[in-house]
Model the fold of this input.
Amino acid sequence: MNEKYLSAEERRRLTVETVVSLAAAQNPSEITTAAIAARMHVTQGALFRHFPSKDAIWQAVMEWVTDRLLDGIDRAAAGEASPVEALRAMFMRHVEFVIAHPGVPRILFGELQRAEATPAKTVARSLLQQYARRISGKLEQAKAAREVGSDTDIEAAAILFIGTIQGLVMQSMLSGDLQAASSNAPRVLGIYLRGLGAGRAIRIDGAISRRKRPVRS
Done:
C-alpha cells in the first residue's frame, strides 16, 4: 500500500509499529518524536495530526502490545486439550512474541520503571493484571483436573509464571542473544511445571509426554 494514501487509522498503526521497531535497537526513553517521524519519512507536524502528544503515542504502543500479546496467548491456549498444555502453549507463544518484537520487553520494563504516572504505565499495569488473571484461571483448571498439586498456591504460581518469562527474556537480552530464550524456554518451563507437581512432563523439545506423574495430595 502506498504510504501517501494511508488512512488515519493505518497511519497510527504504522506509528506504533515504528516505535516498536526503534525500541529494538535503542533505549525507548531516548526515542524522540523527531526520530519516529524521520523513520516514517514524515514531519513531526504530520505525526501530531494523528496523536495529540508523545504520551498518546506511547499509550497507543502499550495498547498495541496488550492486544497482540493477550490475543496471542488466548489463541495458543484455545488449541490445547488440557490446562497444563494450555499453560505450555501460552508460555511459548509469549516467548515467540518477544523474539518477533524485541522492542516490546524494553518498552514494557521501561514504562513500569517510570516514577511518574503516565497513560502508558497504566496500560502496562493493566496488561500484567489481565495476564495474571488468565494464568490463574488455567492454574485453577489444572488444579481441579488434578494436573498440578492440590496444594498449589494459585496466586504465587501465576506470579512465578510471569516472572519466569520476564527473567528468561531479561537473561537473553543481557547475553545479547534473544533467540536463546526460545531454546531455553521449554527446559525452564519444565522445571516450573514439575515444581507444581504437573501431571504431564514436558520434554526439552517442548513436546508433552503422555506419561502420568503422581500428583501431590
Q: What stands out?
A: Strands lie at 200-202, 208-212. The longest helix spans residues 119-144. Residues 18 and 40 are 7 Å apart (CA to CA). Residues 200-217 have pLDDT under 50 and may be disordered.
